Amino acid sequence: MNYTSQKHLTYNPSLTRNIGNKALTIISALFSIISVLPLILVIIYVLIKGGSYINIETLILEPEPPGDDLLTAGGIGPAITGTFIMTVIASIISIPVGVGGGIYLAEYSKSGRFAKFIRFGSNVLAGVPSIIAGVFIYAIIVSTKILFGSMFSGIAGGISLSILMLPTIIKTTDEALKLVPNDMRRAAFGIGASKFTMITNITLPAAFTSISTGVLLALARAAGETAPLIFTALFSRYYITSFDDLFYEMGSLSVLIYNFALEPYEAQNQLAWAASFILVVVLLSLNILSRWIGTLGAFSKHKV
Amino acid sequence: MSKKNIKSTSSVSLDNVSIAYGNSVAVKNVFCDIEKNHVTSFIGPSGCGKSTVIRAINRMNDLIEGCKLSGSVIFEGIDIYAEDIDPVEVRRRIGMVFQQPNPFPKSIYENIAFGARVNGYKGNMDQLVEESLIKAAVWDECKDKLNESGYSLSGGQQQRLCIARTIAIEPDVILMDEPCSALDPLSTLKIEETIHELKKNFTIIIVTHNMQQANRVSDYTAFFNTEKKDKDLGGKIGFLVEFDKTKNMFNSPKQKSTQDYISGKFG
Amino acid sequence: MDKASTSKFSLRTRTTSEKLIDVGFKNIVVAMASMVAVVLFSIFAVVYYESTESISRYGLRFLFSSAWNPVTDEYGAFTAIYGTLFTSIASLVIAIPLGVGTAIFITENIIPKYLRNVIGLMVELLAAIPSVVLGLWAVFIMEPFIRPFLNTIYEIFGFIPFFSTQPLGAGMMPAILILVVMILPIITSISKDSLKQVPSKLRQAAYGIGASRWTTIFQVIIPAAISGITGGVLLALGRAMGETMAVTMIIGNSNNFSWSIFAPSYTISSMLANQFGEADGSQVSSLMYAALILMVLTLLVNVFAQWIVKKLSLKYQ
Ligand SMILES: Nc1ncnc2c1ncn2[C@@H]1O[C@H](COP(=O)(O)OP(=O)(O)OP(=O)(O)O)[C@@H](O)[C@H]1O
Ligand SMILES: [Mg+2]
User: Fold this and answer.
1) Chain B positions in Cβ-Cβ contact with residue C208 (cut-off 8 Å)
2) Does C145 touch chain A (CB under 8 A)?
């Protein structure tokens, strides 16, 4: 017999194999605990610490300049609207372009060389550090004053956010459309629909839920971004009051957190926590919402 | 759970085994004594629980979440579902060949050496690889490409490689779940010859849909069938209809449904 | 067959306007897809163009000098490049076992399924927390909490260059830890997906010949999933190199080179975040040069990631 069999089937806890297995199982459990711990700690601190500074005034007031008044630093109202406005600008640019690009990839050039190149390009673009997007927009928009002579502006900020959203949207659209069964396309052509009609009436609606999942995720990511904004939109303590204000510096929750976290004043730090509370609650909700929508999709990846 | 009156010649005994996936019972009340160094085949219509039962014999069902077993599976006098049993030891003594050939994405040589090493093999590895491949009747096809991937073989050769891999660990029992279902007639014949060879040293249990195959290779046959659960549930439960010498089973089945199944009236 | 069936329905002739819409739509979506290439190319072109002044002035010397003096106009990005590479690789070294270990834990049936799903969800939600919020948390909660531990290390191992300065707050070590938190979700979720895709017949094969759980994992499951895991690790590396806000807030932003991981340092992205707003003249060009280096680094990592996923996954088809 060439095998060292124990000749009985009972579990032998002192066997090297069994010790090793038990140890590795415990280690992997420990690693999992360590991996979820940061999330729990961050959320607890943001919710408790940030939540305790949330009241009507924090939500609507404009922030005070640092150091003027040590008791209250005002509120984060303009930052909330700023984040909202810039995310909307980014969406207005990146959703049509991204969905359009995805349509091209999935419906027109399934595996052509150009499509391969574009898919590769969006993967690369997705990997470009977000601060580079800020540097890029600074160089072509802010420093050239190309937007009617304005330099730092909410529009510039929105554009740089759109660069970050674009690859995600293209990719999810591409993948969502590819999951639509070809039978549906043949059926549409079979009744004489043009390709345009087929896409807008059949495949896009069929892929709608999956696409919106991706769009929501991209949006949530953009809304929390800071790096592309710090030298494009810069920061402003004031509410925008007119359309023209879009061409001036604009505040945002994320930049407010960055600026005020590093202030030596307690009151400013508190505003940073309050802003984090709002940002985290909104982003986590968007994330969970998109997951929930994802489970509804008829052709979503998770179901197939 | 006291030890049953087991015939000394039986290798594996199923004693009132019922198996459920989650809340739905798949097979119930199976009693069956499997003879040492003989071939036993499991036959029956699709979904009657043949795979479920055969997987229970070496605790492969442990891999399926929510799969529960009641009753006992006795192997050499020991209930392998008892609290203190190490399923890994069980699987080392009761090897398994699956319906789909599943070589590891490693070389042919490694496919066999891996299992041997896992089981603490101490002898000459080259010799073991060669012997196992010869016993599984694929040596001729493999001997010149031992370092190539297991996936470079045809489906039938892959399946025989998987059999060789199982033989190499020298189990007492070999379970085969439809080992020929993915193969052409010629490969099937080869594997049947292999089984004939193997039964000198191993106890073999084979699931098959092929009546002739059961007739050709097995000494004993177990026929499983399904019956409707409670009407409102709609599902089906498998059970063992008849278990006997293959000769008797095919010539004079005791149950009407066995007769019908064997003669091809349903299934 | 398609042709035949459409001709049957050709009672309705296609109007010119319908054809126009069809062609126009195609051209529009082609243009939109091209935007990716245009943006990507412009980013490179602009960053390169803006940095030409520094490239021609400093050449490769820029990579090896730690000078950063706007007064004398001497610039070198060594500290930032070293910081970028060191923090990202160190965070990877910590995050790989944690992430892959977690991925294994939640793909094996060790604990009940719903608990595994909860852990998986939590790790993925971690990715939704903005970098700047993690930075805030790192500054006010994490760093004060770990400082005593780092101090102990300093007191005991201070003779080793890597631990040779007293931890006084911001520094490379807390930056590495916060990077770990940021890249864990990427490694975990991509590893989890790749492990899940390993065909169950391979697992059965290993268990069927008497392999134990962890032998199966190490010798069969992980090798079969290695392409995806490697891809995820490389993506995480790219992410760590480009990560800006949290790092900027906690790394201390100092261009003085130090071997000590407790000392303040720089990464390229934190240098950009910190200085770009107020820079002018040749400093802008030097920052652009640094940005170009960062882009090339992340590009290499990303392209390598895509290549290796393709190459390794072919092996197991
Ligand atoms: N992993 C599983 N999870 C849940 N139910 C299962 C699982 N495997 C099998 N079943 C159910 O158990 C019953 C028996 O299945 P089993 O695979 O054992 O049948 P079988 O006799 O091997 O059929 P076939 O001849 O088609 O292979 C079926 O109703 C099946 O739906
Ligand atoms: Mg079966």
Assistant:
1) 58, 60, 91, 95-98, 166
2) no
Domains of chain A plus CATH, in order, are 78-303 (1.10.3720.10)
Cβ-count burial of A44 within 10 angstroms (0-12 exposed, 13-18 middle, 19+ buried)?
exposed
Contact present, A263 and A269 (Cβ < 8 Å): yes
Residue-wise pLDDT tens digits, A276-299: 999 999 999 999 999 898 887 555
ipTM score assigned to the predicted complex = 0.92
- List B33's β-bridge partners, or say none: B13
SS3 B241: strand
The ligand with the least distance to the CA atom of B209 is: 1
**Are C223 and B91 inside 8 Å of each other by CB?**
no
Q: How many CA atoms lie within 13 A of C103 on its CB side?
A: 30
Give the distance (Å) from ligand 1 centre to CA of residue C56.
71
Asked if the structure places residue B88 within a domain, the reply is yes
Ordered DSSP codes for A58-118: HHHSPBPPTTS-SS--B--HHHHHHHHHHHHHHHHHHHHHHHHHHHIIIII-SS-HHHHHH
Amino acid identity at A46: V
Output the CA–CA distances (angstroms, integers) from residue C275 to C139, C239, C254, C278, C287, in the order listed: 20, 21, 11, 6, 8
> Quick check: A63 and A265 in contact, CB under 8 A?
no
The residue among C272, C234, C239 whose CA lies nearest residue A135 is C272
Query: Which CATH number belongs to the domain containing residue B120 in this structure?
Result: 3.40.50.300
Q: Is B5 contained in some domain?
A: no
Nearest CA-CA partner of A65 in A277, A249, A256:
A256
- Looking at the 3D structure of chain B, how many domains does it have? 1
Residue B48, phi then psi, degrees to nearest 5: -85, 0
Q: Does ligand 1 lie within 6 Å of residue B51's CB atom?
A: yes
Q: What is the pLDDT of residues B134-146, one digit of tens each?
A: 988 889 989 899 9
Distance of alpha carbon A260 from alpha carbon A271, whole angstroms: 7
Buried b / exposed e over B142-169, threshold 16 CB at 10 Å, is beeebeebbbebeebbbbbbbbbbbbbb
Q: Which of B89, B117, B121, B167 to mutate to test the interface with A (most CBs of A within 10 A)?
A: B89
Q: Which of B252, B247, B187, B179 is nearest to B209 (CA)?
A: B179
Does residue B124 fall inside a structural domain? Answer: yes
Residue minimizing CA distance to atom 30 of ligand 1: B47
Residue A67 has pLDDT above 80, yes or no: no
Q: What is the distance in angstroms between the CA of the first residue and the CA of the last residue of chain A?
A: 49
Answer whether A184's CB lies under 8 Å from A206's CB: yes
Quote the distance between the C-alpha of residue B239 and its chain's center: 17
Ligand 1, atom 12, lies closest to the CA of B26
> HEC profile for B112-124?
HHHHHHHCCECCC
Per DSSP, which regions of C33-148 are E strands? 68-69, 74-75
- Rounded distance between C-alpha atoms, residue B132 and residue A2, angstroms: 14
Structural domain boundaries enclosing B109: 10-262
- Write out the two tokens for C240: 């760590």
Pairing of strands B203-207, B220-228: unpaired
Express each pLDDT in B146-165 by its tens digit.
999 999 998 889 999 999 99
C61-312 belongs to CATH 1.10.3720.10 = yes
Q: Check if the beta carbon of residue B35 is closer than 8 Å to that of residue B106.
A: no
Which helix or strand (DSSP H or E) is residue C198 part of?
none
Nearest to A270 by CA among A73, A6, A82, A98: A73
One-letter amino acid at C130 equals: P
Q: Per-residue pLDDT tens for B167-187?
A: 999 899 999 999 888 778 888
